[in-house]
Structure formats: structure tokens, C-alpha cells
Amino acid sequence: MIGFTILITLYTLLTLEIFHRTVIALIMVGIVFIINLILRYAPFTQLIEAIDLDTILLLMSMMMLVSIMSKTGVFSYIAHHILLRFYNKRSPLTVISYYF
User: Fold this and answer.
1) CA separation, residue 88 to residues 10, 77, 85 (Å)
2) Is 76 in the same domain as 38?
3) Are 31 and 2 in contact (CB under 8 A)?
4) Which of 3, 28, 75, 84 has the most CB atoms around its CB within 10 Å?
5) Domain that holds residue 20
6) How many structural domains does the chain have?
């Protein structure tokens, strides 16, 4: 029940955009750690050992690549050429991408 409450709070704060989503995520992680320490679900060392740094580094590097590529306009360029190629054909891709 505690996890469900935290999840609903997280999505509510993300939807309302009161703070930046990174700040909200860090606050919620802190709340989870504090609740875990108070209720003694698992020792702190076990929590730290459960963090997979390889996955975190992979996600961070992918986010940096996407951020750099979006600033250079690569995604707009690719979308433009896809639409040009399928412009006269009524495919689901053309219809969906036209409205977005």
C-alpha cells in the first residue's frame, strides 16, 4: 500500500509539473529510502548494493545522445524524409505522423 501511494504521488507531481521531473524523482527516491530505513525492510548496505551502475550509466549515456541529437535536428530531418518518401501513400505511419 505504501508503494502504491508513492507511485500515485509521483505521477501526480509529474503531471502537475510543479517541479522539474528530475527533482521530483530524486525527492521520491529519498522518501523511499527514508521509509525503508524507518520500517527496516532491508539494510542500507543491501539497498546500495542493489543499484546497478551499468544500467544507470547506459541510461545516462543514451539520454545524453538523444539530447545532443535533438538539438542538432537529426530527428526532424529523419521525420521529414520519411514523410517525403510516403507522402502520396496512405499508410498508417503517414496518417499518425501527420497529426503529431
Assistant:
1) 44, 19, 8
2) no
3) no
4) 28
5) 1-51
6) 2
**pLDDT per residue rounded down to tens, the chain (100 residues):** 888 999 999 999 999 988 898 899 999 989 988 888 888 888 878 878 888 899 999 999 999 999 999 899 998 898 888 778 777 766 676 667 666 6
Residues 20 and 65 in one domain: no
One domain for residues 26 and 4: yes
**How far is residue 14's CA from residue 23's CA, in Å, rounded to a whole number?**
10
Contacts of 37 (CB under 8 A, 6+ apart): 44
Name the pTM for this structure. Answer: 0.53
3-state secondary structure of 88: coil
- What CA–CA distance (Å, rounded) separates 54 from 64? 15
Query: Is residue 12 domain-shared with residue 26, that is, in the same domain?
Result: yes
